């Protein structure tokens, strides 16, 4: 389930302060999305056990009068298009400005929920000034101070109320049980070409699945006697968007597709290599616990000698480190080279992600590894790990039971993770390790 909230508002009302507070308090993830002309921010907020994506569509706005208006309109349009709910932020200390009025006009036209949020209400005096904002005519008005955090809890309560509980029909359940792969990547890397190459094969049965979010297209496939669902956003981008927004749109779409997927197929353009943006998307997928396969497309365009692929993979892995146990496949969507291999690998990664290791086997292997290399002594305490078990979670997770759970440091955690990866196949899958008091 993917729910997205966008923050809109003119410059200096406190959007980024608010954004940072939302994420900082909830220990969420912040990713800077570098658009072509401005920086916008994306993160995951978490409130009362419900999570949602938060986007700050603001960022840099040139201060020439006419460009200004245009940029603000664009910002609002992106937010209305992409989000499920909007936070319209204003500033109590400045009162209602012409730009606030102009934005309110645009926002009143959407059917999506708009939460008018009057910021900088740091004290009771400000509260009096702030009441003038009722005049803008929004039903939901919140008075907050992003600086102190006051009022933000009420706003969050109202926001998470909108997140639907997962209810499923029988048909949904059957689809939900199938592996879901998202094809993600920047514009022009060849996502559409890959989809077309797959669809064009007679072994595939294609049917569009209705009822999924409007921003992603789900297609049901049957290949290698296996059923799976491909989630793509490729076709959607060719709407009438302005060029410099293409990249930002593609990032938001990628994140939505990612939320719905078990395994992400991150498509790159071989000639361009992996960009900083791709690395952001890659680490976000890893933190969200998604399986990952990297597809280096347009391999037909590369001049190749004996070690080209090997060297390429090595350089790529340096950039995605520390999570490098990830399959990298060199494909050409145009020449239909290794596109089946790509899908087979995605199915393998899915199998790795859903693998449950029997406890006895896990203990046999891991206790030996622990015996061979003990955790270092901390403050004179010798650390003993007695038992390990896999937890019944979506992302493969392992609990190690020990006398001093807080004294085990990252290097030893990494050692345990590497041992798990060496003995059991978790290629393409982030794994989580917990230490618990025995
Ligand atoms: P943005 O341009 O909308 O992203 O605004 P910023 O988050 O950069 O904030 C603009 C200015 O307002 C900064 O100087 C902030 O410190 C200040 N500010 C933000 N929130 C509050 C608040 O709740 N109270 C007060 N007094 N100042 C705030
Ligand atoms: P998308 O924006 O990621 O969906 O990318 P497209 O599928 O629209 O492809 C962008 C451009 O790259 C098009 O001109 C394609 O013909 C070209 N292209 C896609 N895949 C390949 C490939 O494997 N080899 C070559 N040489 N060109 C490709």
TrEMBL record:
PROSITE patterns assigned: G_ENGA
UniProt entry tagged with the keyword Phosphoprotein: no
InterPro entries noted in UniProt: G_ENGA (IPR031166), GTP-bd (IPR006073), GTPase_Der (IPR016484), KH_dom-like (IPR032859), KH_dom-like_a/b (IPR015946), P-loop_NTPase (IPR027417), Small_GTP-bd (IPR005225)
Signal peptide coordinates: none
Keywords associated with the record: GTP-binding, Nucleotide-binding, Repeat, Ribosome biogenesis
Cross-referenced SUPFAM superfamilies: P-loop containing nucleoside triphosphate hydrolases
Keyword Lyase assigned: no
All copies of domain EngA-type G, residue ranges: 3-167, 179-354
GO biological process, alphabetically ordered: ribosome biogenesis
Gene Ontology MF terms in the entry: GTP binding; ribosome binding
Residue positions binding GTP 2: 185-192, 232-236, 297-300
Binding positions for GTP 1 per the UniProt entry: 9-16, 56-60, 119-122
Highest taxon in the source lineage: Bacteria
NCBIfam families found in the cross-reference section: GTPase_EngA (TIGR03594), small_GTP (TIGR00231)
Family: Belongs to the TRAFAC class TrmE-Era-EngA-EngB-Septin-like GTPase superfamily. EngA (Der) GTPase family.
Function: GTPase that plays an essential role in the late steps of ribosome biogenesis.
Subunit relationships: Associates with the 50S ribosomal subunit.
Protein name (Swiss-Prot/TrEMBL): GTPase Der
Lineage: Bacteria, Pseudomonadati, Bacteroidota, Chitinophagia, Chitinophagales
Gene: der
